[in-house]
Amino acid sequence: MALEERERIVIPDENGEEHLFEVLFTFDVDKTGHSYIAVAPAEQAEEEEVEVYAFRYEEKNENEDDLSLFPIESDDEWEMVEEMLNTLADEENDA
């Protein structure tokens, strides 16, 4: 069975250094109209435990490769993202 190639994105840090991340998943919330993305550092991709970062995002223009990322600031948003992460982790463990 071939491994699925995950999408990768580059995210600059506060110092302008670019870091490569693997996209774990994206999801939309109809109730709020917001989209979310969860990523992990590409260098940790093969490790058993990885650091996961989540952002709210908006696509710029029509180009899907151009995203604006926003920090998740409210507890409600964090709970929603954590619930989605847990659901996907459970599904992956069951597979």
UniProtKB/TrEMBL annotation:
It comes from the Bacteria. InterPro entries: UPF0473. Belongs to the UPF0473 family. HAMAP family: UPF0473 (MF_01448). This is UPF0473 protein ACFOGI_02620.
